Amino acid sequence: MTIRTAIIDDEVPARDELAYLLSFFPDIEVAGQAGSAGKGIEIIRALQPDLVFQDIQMPGKDGFQVVREILATQSTPPLFVFATAFDRYALQAFEENAVDYLLKPISRGRIAKSLDRVRSLLSRNQENHSVRRELECLMSRLDKKDDPVRIPLEYKGRVKLLAPEEIAFFSLEDRKVTASLREGTLPVFGQTSIDGLEQKLRGHHFFRAHRAFLVNMCHIDQFSPWFNGKYLLTMSDAKNSEVVVSKGRVREFKERLGI
Question: pLDDT by residue (tens digit) across 99-114?
Fold first, then answer.
């Protein structure tokens, strides 16, 4: 049995690497690729693949929206295997459903395990009903969103609540966490560690650049290599602050950027 497969990822190197890894499996045919969720939906409808490997976080629509639109328009959806550069998307939900996930960077061995699972699912007698039911279950679980995340900041004797997107980065000094904004800096109310914020902001665009810094990837203005294998980020806060990416975190930073 040949498994017709599509790859959806906005990063060309990631698509190329995945296609290369899949080439080692004779029963996998990569029928098409797309660089955005919108194009991905188009090729799924046109090619009717058995299997889709796709990124979660892409410009515009994300990977979950692709699944929702396909479920809404196709009676026999393909299997979806999600790929992500970081563990921030309720991955436990994937493990309990028919779909799988791959944590980037992806190894050939991990692909092999995922494909074993795919083959098993596709061989079920009532595979289409099973796939649809389990995909709908996954989407239902992901749609049960928590209350919107707000960051409490100390401001003129009161507590001001801001959306995470408004904050360029958090820094820790003397057990006091500070949020840097375009307008200046404010202490984070009731927070004494970066670890707690990192957990709270899973699923948002934040990256732990250093033990004492949690940066918003959307507020990085520029970066450059620094000494001893570190990187130096210039942030888009009021002071155009510079934040060091520690040597041990450079690889993850580059993966997050797709470089």
Answer: 677 777 888 998 998 8
Q: Which amino acid is at 217?
A: M
Over residues 124-149, the mean pLDDT reads 59
Residue type, 168: A
Secondary structure of the chain in HEC code, one letter for each residue: CCEEEEEECCCHHHHHHHHHHHCCCCCEEEEEEECCHHHHHHHHHHHCCCEEEEECCCCCCCHHHHHHHHHHHCCCCCEEEEEECCCCCCHHHHHCCCCEEEECCCCHHHHHHHHHHHHHHHCCCCHHHHHHHHHHHHHHHHHCCCCCCCEEEEECCEEEEECHHHCCEEEEECCEEEEECCCCEEEECCCCCHHHHHHHCCCCCEEEEECCEEEEHHHEEEEEECHHHCEEEEECCCCCCEEEECHHHHHHHHHHHCC
Please give the domain boundaries of the chain with CATH numbers for all domains.
Answer: 3-143 (3.40.50.2300), 151-257 (2.40.50.1020)
pTM confidence score: 0.53
Q: Which of 123-137, 172-186, 194-208, 237-251 has the least mean pLDDT?
A: 123-137
